[in-house]
Batch of 4 targets.
Target 1
Amino acid sequence: MPANPSAVTAQPVARLIDELGRLPGIGPKTASRLAYHLLRTSTEEATALAEAILDVKARISLCTVCFNTTESDPCGLCGDPTRESVICVVEAPLDVVALERTGQYRGRYHVLHGSLSPVEGIGPDKLRIAELLARVEQERPTEVIIATNLDLPGEATATYLHRLLVPLGVSVSRPASGLPAGGDLEYADEVTLGRAIAARRRL
Ligand SMILES: [Zn+2]
């Protein structure tokens, strides 16, 4: 008879494996490996990791203007008066990091926190789209760049946003091709991403 896993795994370890397994990209095997690795580390190391997680949850929130993660509200980018009056719409905070690293963009951002996906039940109400439209009406930017991912949900989101933004009288653009099709923006290399944002095309 096969061994009952709960009989060989102590409950606290099983709980840790379960929690680690909820992280993106972590399968059951990796979760087990990480859990047993943590068991072997010193109490100081384990405490440092646990405290870093709690600290980020306690101190980091979303900017009420652009919805990027921030320690202060509004965030440093929104509070910077030298930033151009252009809004770059992205899916995730990591995309902001990727675009900032290119050094090719000096405007503002708006983080949607996802992309439209009817299959996964993600409609416009689940994203920061209403907030984007209100912001465009209030801030009157010279341009909105839709830098969602180049996969199907990202393209669907771009098309949807374009349709809503055009009646507001704002110029709408999309980063130029050259980015890997189907890929996440955050995984594009700096040079490619920098070129794509600099040579964006008007929709
Ligand atoms: Zn902000």
Note: The chain has two domains: 5-59, 69-202.
Target 2
Amino acid sequence: MITTDRNYWLDTVAAPAGSPGPPPERADVAIIGAGYTGLSAAHRLATRGTDVVVLEARTIGWGASSRNGGMVLTGLKVGGAALQSRFGRDVARQMYTASVASIEHVETLIRTEHIDCDFTRCGHLDVACTPAQFIRFARASDLVAREFGYRLRIVPRGELSSEIGSEAYFGGIVDDRSGGLNPARYVAGLARAALSAGARVYERTPATKITPAVRNAQSGYEIVTPQGRVFAREVVIATGGYTTGVVPALRRKIVPIGSYIIATTPLPVAMAQELSPRRRMIFDSRHFLHYYRLTADNRMLFGGRAAFVPATRGTIARSAAILRRDLVGVFPQLHDVTIDYVWGGTLDFCFDTIPHAGQLDGLYYSVGYAGHGVAMATYLGAQVAAQLCGEPTQNPFADITFPGAPLGMHAAVRWGLPIVAGWYKMRDWLDL
Ligand SMILES: Cc1cc2nc3c(=O)[nH]c(=O)nc-3n(C[C@H](O)[C@H](O)[C@H](O)COP(=O)(O)OP(=O)(O)OC[C@H]3O[C@@H](n4cnc5c(N)ncnc54)[C@H](O)[C@@H]3O)c2cc1C
């Protein structure tokens, strides 16, 4: 079995080249990071005539945006009841509505920019690993219908075979509005759209220092890169789980969490049909969850937080073995299947597992999608850009409290991730 880093999605895409040469000395807006957040913001700004540059430490889409499961999901990581108790009914409704709007936004962008990324509105299926979880599904769907006006469909255990070829679960809940896509082709398409709208994207150009500065009586920021300095009126930080100490205040508010994926060899059509008859985006309701789906060429792509910490050679090899075992646990039909790919990436979680998109020390940012970033990063990147252009926005994630680590122990939380992982495993075991 393969145990070294190899990302299936990258074998399906020809990534666009970035802009040639060193970055310019001046721009209206500089965006740090060329994933969905940064490129979506750049696209929106460039279409409004703003002079925008994107500075990317590696290559276009190198971060989570080319490594994820490609699930374009409604809802947030935090459920409806918790949203209400934390933010009140109005803000909770606005947040849920934004999650639905984010999918419409992605669909429209793909259509208008002709992005070839296998997008389909296949819906998602959340499966219950215990009877108690299934009972919680019914409560969740009642709340979503009553408070947010959206219908989800409960699938009892006896009817689950129409959704999934597995005996492992106690029922499910379906949302037909969710979709799926090829994430690397999507981020490549977003980059092409931003470039052709006039944005400039500089690869291998890490921002190493950002400081307030004044040029020709105009205030802004100076961004230092190994290729030269850029002065920009405004800066957008779009560095997700890869945020470094360049923006220490933001870094202290993000927990980088590792997630890993394996992909099988292409399955016979009949087997693919048996495992996932409706080709949905599927995930289970554990804290230490699994997520899986078929690809366009009928591979089963199976992911999870097998190691919880960001990817290294060691965690990738270990995760490959753990995920293979868990895949066969869900689908015993695949006990002999060959695994062609394994890779890892880093998710961006905030301490309250809610996205945050606003301004910190004068810098704009959008981070913290907690596994829902395909749609939400695209949407919030565009919202931040709209705010910069002085246009109306629909961003309920701007004015909420943005908590840091408990007791300010940010570094301790990063080093303590294996303990956090153990805590969540125990909660899964106790079904809490
Ligand atoms: C394995 C995995 C599976 C996932 N599955 C799903 C899923 O199925 N559905 C879903 O909705 N979400 C999923 N996610 C989450 C989703 O991929 C992310 O939320 C989303 O891609 C974040 O996009 P972004 O643009 O904010 O950040 P990223 O795509 O991570 O991009 C950040 C970029 O910033 C660059 N950068 C960092 N520091 C600097 C610097 N100083 N200077 C210049 N550049 C810098 C990095 O090189 C990187 O390219 C998954 C994530 C992972 C890792």
Note: Residues 231 and 277 are 53 Å apart (CA to CA).
Target 3
Amino acid sequence: MGKRRRMEKRYRYISLLSDIEGMKNAIGEMRGMFFPKQPVLNQDARMDTAGTVLDEEWFIRTLTDKIAHHPESGMEYPFYDEPIFDPPLVGFVRGNDLIFDQFKEIIGPHHFTPWEIMKWQAEKNGVAPPDAKDISVVSFVMPITRNTRTDNAAAVDWPSERWAQTRLLGEILSQTIVGEIVADLMDKGILAVSPDVTPKFNKKRYPKVGWASPWSHRHIAYAAGLGTFGMQDFLITEKGCAHRLGSFVVNLKLKPNRQRPEDIHAYCLHYQGQKCLKCAKRCPVNAITAENAHNKETCYQKVAQSLKYCNKNYHIFIYGCGLCATGVPCESGIPESIQRSMESKPSGKK
Ligand code: SF4
Ligand code: SF4
């Protein structure tokens, strides 16, 4: 049974103080604290993977199974046991892909390459870091369910309760299942690391990009060919932009399974010269405009204020918004007119 299951039949009292996992999650995300102990590499098992073939299919199967059936995979009261997510999309990108050097320039030098974070894990375990060509990043998209999307699409100022729960429980689920996979691989003698639950992870304001973390699941998912960016900076995938993302690094050569569009805005109607800006109309604080795209600072201020609202009304410790990811043409898929034009070009998305 998951650790939050005890709230099965009621809201928690004095939620500002009693939602301990929520508080830990929020502080961890901002400050790189309260993460579980890193698993230790089982060096005796280095050549032995107990007969399991750890290929792309294994990762897709394992993630899909855990997202559907893990004890932490259900919503809380009053939506007890509804699923948090639909089945995931999973993609792979090799550690020596040149895009990671570009991220150093686009996002900033603080953003880790897969090799840098793997080096940290290798040194912690007293082994030599593997070559960048021998490591891969596994990236996954967890699409938000129709119930939650529908609720949030009806919201006009603050996130719906299902959305707020998804933001918190989905993050806990994601960190838990990645932690289990990483621990399993380390036990099999394969170096692996989940960058966003290491002490290296904390969010800061950076000159070029404003609030940012040293490991962006969103950019990693783009690198793995899982989607492209919209006006609101969310990643538009074949399951839309209403989702949570995760990623981790493994010392295995996994084959990329999706073609990455060169145009980082390939699936956004506005950027492709078509009428839209529905996300801008959905934003209660005008953080999205045709002239300046997404103003991260204005957005951040609104999202930070939502903590009080969610706590008071939904009895959990979480912030969020996502109004611009729901009630929009890219909510649950690539907009239809863009799909049609991709289908007419044989070199488009796989
Ligand atoms: S709502 Fe329209 S303009 Fe905004 S990200 Fe989606 S497709 Fe682009
Ligand atoms: S997430 Fe940010 S940009 Fe999107 S609607 Fe909310 S405040 Fe506006």
Note: The mean pLDDT is 90.
Target 4
Amino acid sequence: MTTSPTVFRLASRLDEIGFSDIVNIRNRIMKLREQGAKVYQFEGGEPYMNTPDFVKEAMKRALDENKTRYAPSSGIPELRAAIADKLRTKNNIAAEPNDVMIMNGGMQGLFGAFQSVVNPGEEVLVFSPYWTPIKDLIAHCEGRPVLVPTALARAEGFEKTLTRYTTDRTRAIYYNTPQNPTGVVFTRDEARAVARFAREKDLIVLADEAYEDLVYDGEHCSIASLEGMFERTITIFTLSKSFAMTGWRLGYTVAAEPWMTGMRKTTLYSSNGVSTPTQWAALAAFTTESDMLETNRVAYQQRRDLLLAGLNELGLSCENPAGAFYAFPDVSRVSRDSREAAEILLDRAQVATVPGVVFGPDGESHLRFSFSTSIETIEAGLDSLRRNL
Ligand SMILES: Cc1ncc(COP(=O)(O)O)c(C=O)c1O
């Protein structure tokens, strides 16, 4: 039998989809550690603390009670109802349980949302620097990300900047607050300006609120809570950051029709829902009285203040991130090429970071430092930078 050379070829729809650059950095760190080096790790993207006991206990109970069979693909009704409650009281989003879908992390929520909205050839406005996977999620729809510099929008006004990047192919806005990688938290007035623009131009908003519980300055405002926005917004949430549950893969989306139908379809034919015991454990996250969210927020803020003071003192000037757990200093004094700057910090001071250019061209000359780590690591990392940079 003869096979043509095209047989062992990946389907073309995956041609434009990349892999995360961050994996390459992790490999370098592993290598350094194998050689016995101590590496101060600031490159990560997950909470440093463990999942709360009340969630773990609920998981054990679910297993003991044999809650291990197929659940509805959209999620167990108890969890959807608890989340709708949370959305109404905390986010001011007028959601009913039927507007909520349980997802395998924020990532599956984002995947379903983009797939449900973006047609081939359509454009999505993306505030930039942006979280890297967004461009690949849009590419998977054969759409095109159009980068809108956040700093420019904040300086000259959202309406003016967004207008400049809008064409007759523009379909949606990806709106992430608090932002990865910059820690920017859009104000209520900024949310209003984006909402007004979306209504005027008849655009759909994909709101990524993965870091909603990590706000240090100002407030978190869900854009779907603003007038006339619920029907044109898909909001994506996750328990990954708020409840230190990155490995559990539990997220959720809230949206109206027709978006719900789109997300039901993408979920049904990919994962067919989230693991049943995991959903029962997630229910405990929403129904257990605890001051965990506030305690963690205060702990992150302490780490932010420590890292920021150290970076600024080193001449790596950095605006105070109002949210999330990342600092994004300008490192031109080390190198304008952020990949080179990251190499220099790793080689000279054993400090691991992520080059800003990974988050798009507006991230060049910057590095992303996560302050989701121990106080000792932040102090030791800064000390190493002081001695070696
Ligand atoms: C901005 C942003 N959105 C969404 C996610 C998705 O998180 P997960 O898939 O773990 O829920 C992340 C994770 O790093 C993120 O940084």
Note: The mean pLDDT is 96.
